[in-house]
Amino acid sequence: MAEALDTEETRVFDADVGRILDIVAHALYSEREVFLRELIANAADACDKRRFLAQTDEALAEGAGDPAVTLVPDAGARTLTVSDTGVGMNRDELIANLGTIARSGTAEFAKKLSGDAAKDGSLIGQFG
Questions:
Q1: What whole-number distance in Å separates Cα of residue 128 and Cα of residue 15?
Q2: CB burial of residue 48 (10 Å; 0-12, 13-18, 19+)
Q3: Strand, helix or coil for residue 69
Q4: Alpha-carbon distance 123 to 41, whole Å?
Q5: In 17-77, where does DSSP find H-type helix?
Q6: Which CATH architecture has domain 17-119?
Q7: pLDDT by residue (tens digit) across 45-97?
Q8: Quick check: helix, strand or coil at residue 7?
């Protein structure tokens, strides 16, 4: 018969972060199309945020025209430029969000909403 343990013990959980990042990066971004989809979704989210915030911020409403996502292919340079006229990010937001896997500025934005505003915000990129 097994003895009951009378002492409580705490152990540290450890992870090989480098290996986890490698697994996540290969699982999520192994195909170029996934990466492109993420860029376009982020641009669309930025435009949705601008539309939403423009309802109460006249400066955003009068900004750079209608919110839009633009894709510009350059066959010679073998590039595709994704740009938008969305809400944008300041320096602190760039530092906090770029290079952080699964961080979603959209999810954080949605958390700040309450009442009817939360229902009306149909923001799509809530998982980073």
A1: 22
A2: buried
A3: strand
A4: 10
A5: 17-29, 32-54, 58-61
A6: 2-Layer Sandwich (3.30)
A7: 899 888 888 888 887 777 667 889 999 999 999 999 999 999 888 888 888 77
A8: coil
Nearest CA-CA partner of 105 in 55, 22, 41 = 41
Which of the four pLDDT bands, split at 50, 70 and 90, describes residue 128?
very low
Please compute, for residue 55, the number of CA atoms within 13 A of its CA located in the half-sphere on the CB side: 9
pTM of the full structure: 0.61
Token digits of residue 3: 């003895």
Q: How far is CA 78 from CA 30, 70, 74, 75, 115, in A?
A: 19, 17, 6, 5, 46
